[in-house]
Queue: 4 jobs
Job 1
Amino acid sequence: MLLNEGLHTLDTLMWWLGAPLDFEYEDDAFGGIESNVKIKMLFPGDVSCSFRLSRTCKLQNRITIQGELSTVSLPLYGQADVTVRENKREHTERVVPANWSFVKLVSEQLKDFVQGIETQRPARTTGEDGRTVIEFIERCYRAKRQRPLPKRAPSPGLTW
């Protein structure tokens, strides 16, 4: 779950916030592949993040950033509309003309990569950026392997 689906959202979070300084990782794997993931992360600037993925629970598929005075929320897929909540009032704003298409997004990334090679300029996203995310995921899995497995699997959707 984390490597397959979480990779893209973690990449976005690290693009916005940098690499986590510290984390607590949980999943529901009982020595195999996980279906549910929870990560608590601490980023530079004392920014904390709760991250949840699931193949067995219905989630909102949103990134929500909560500050002291307001909350900003946007869907993972179709990030044209941003919801802002301030002083118990909520409003949605369109920040780009239309929802993005995943195929178009990947096409733009590949185009940027090729143009970088042709013009000898760095791509907007580097291999180092990708490696940072993969290394973080590997750190999460190592942290989990260091803990003993429970005697019984918990109820579906729970992690340890």
Job 2
Amino acid sequence: MKTLPYILLLILSFNSLHAQHVTAKSDEFTVDLSDPKNLKDSSVPLINWLAPLNETIFLREAKLFVRLEITSPTPLKTISLTVREKSAAAVRGSQIITPKDGERYKMSFEKNIAMPEGVNVLELVVENADGVQSKSFRIVHVGETALADAAKLNRHDYAVLFITDKYDNWGGLVNPIFDGRALASQLEKIYGFKVDVLENPSQDQIFRKLREYSEKKYEPLDQVMIFFAGHGYFDETFKEGYVVMKESLKDDPGKTSYLSYNRLRNVVNSIPSEHTLLMMDVCFGGTFDDNIANSRGDDAYKEISQSEYIIRKLAVKTRKYLTSGGKQYVSDGVAGKHSPFAKRVLDALGSFGGTDGILTLTELWPYVEKLNPEPKLGKFGDDAPGSEFVFVVK
């Protein structure tokens, strides 16, 4: 008999909490079961991290800027911030914030928090008037020792290449598969990427593979590169670019047999890796960017360790694209000699990243920018200021 109120509480709380869509990986909720007043349906305070966005942060300087927005249908009671050592329970600092009268249902605040050297856990606990708590955290690596430790995190680079030179209804091409195989070889042998290559895939096969990458589990420093080579198409009526599929029809007014850049952009942006690069060697590839589709037709290496440089470059979320052209046709090249775009990308990868063994996307760009037509480099989706994609010699 004693278990019935407990079970009822969990059912009531779950139904209410489920409606709040608490989905962030670092978010948890708790209810104080020792207080009889909590044996009722309640709501969950929602925590929105505006800065930092990543769950794992790497700092050279011992100060972290935090910006938060907290909302709750039930009046807020307290917000507590605690910094503790990750490997121990020792508390390194804490602060309790009591919302003012005008902040009982929605509160925003910014703080600079001093972080001791080492690996810290910054924990945020928000409690409402019913005793229901939301918890969220960030892992913060500070200082040279912590940065060195962070470099030992399990980090992987992935690439999936969709390369097409044979079409059911379009003319064939001479270089996409030749280019893709060469690119896969360099990514694997020089930079240690785990590479999937799909040759002449159907649209269904492409989306099955993209779904597979969307369902992978990624570490904070993992990267994903997606590459398309083949025909591209731009519809002047719809003002939209497309990747031509192996089975794409010539007579297809609705373009349902094509892969639209709008859909591709949304699918790639949803892949849960922190760092994603989409590279396309297709005609009209630049129309992946809405600004181009609707138009009329210093990263110097400083004397720091390689591991710290990588961590610095991958400190924020990356969503970049690099295409072989803008709103025009691009050359497939001469058979057996690579397309002009692929040749320059392979040259960049073949540089082994220079003396530091790291090739950034910013450093790759000069290899291709003088091609005619001009390639396009930009950002999409959830890209954050200062983001980067890197190729690290293994």
Job 3
Amino acid sequence: MKNLKVISLILLIAAILLLFFMSNKKDESNSKKPIVAVTTFALYDIVTHIAKDSVEIVHILPFGVDPHSFEPTPKLMAKIEESALVFYSGAGLEPWVDGFDFHAKAINIGEYVHLRKLSHNEAQHHKHHHSVDPHYWLDFENMKIAAKVITKNLIALLPKREAFFKENLTNYIAMLQKLENEYAALLGSCKLHKVVVSHNALGYLSRRYHFDVESLTGLSPEAQPSAKEVTSIMNTIKKDGVRTIFFEHFVNDNVIKRIAADTNISIDVFEALGNITKDEAEAGMSYEDLMRKNLQKLSKALMCQ
């Protein structure tokens, strides 16, 4: 009788352990998150705020790397192939996607937003992006469109999280609208109407908020300006009373510094947001944070009231 009780107890413990391990295995299987890969920082910011911890987000472009000259490694390519969804910027920004066979559903956000066509002069100076300006995420209306497209695809991927995604989308669009209102209010009345930049990522902002942009290298950050272009920029600075010359992270600033010294104006970083630095990423900087910094710098450079 005693042995029977011992055997029964052992069998009961074994059954409990079996159920425990089966349950854990099921939970582990259920908890595996789908992978969503993104290219530019702006798209990363949208997915981060809409999906939050519902998915594993792979930022294809490493923080601190220039998006214009980036080429993914075989390891990154393998990670892209594991993804359930891939969102890429399009508009010619990622030439490496041409000919790449995506195993996941790949969405070219550039096909949904309103792209700015380049002037003949701009197009001549830029070899990668053909006839459009790829920096469309600096237009808040385009960011709203991108957020809606991304949310729609996230819902298709995880339909049970639809209400969660839609609530996050509402909050994200409200943030974008608030930023848009702040830009309109602060850039609505300015003494100056021109900024000088190393490469022109400000086309969408300048068009919407009615200021002019003079750039050293057009849309090509990797291009080296000629002596004629440097002289032209210096003449513009003096003629129009420009107070600040902007450059971007990941761009050689030697020429910019020389121009600033020769014309006695200040230099500052404009966040183009194709990517951000490692330090900014570690600090948890968001699209909202950096666009607000851009607004303060622009309003100061244009002497806005």
Job 4
Amino acid sequence: MQTLASFLSCNLNTYTNNLGVEILSVNVSSIDNIKLLVDYFNKYPLLGTKSEDYDKWIIVYNMIITKEHLTEKGRLNIKSILKNNKV
């Protein structure tokens, strides 16, 4: 995972959940690094429910890139995506 985080220019964090399982988390802080992450997951898609989460995330990401999130309609659309757990 450290190699992947380095490749994506991301920070890799480790923490333990309430079941005592170690969790790895990749954190991205710049829009350029997020683009690298988007390109990576478009080439190597996630599976299962993580794929569904990514599908919602990419919609919101694209809204931010196009500045739609700055409008009332955009904010309501984002809230709807999150609230309904639907894309």
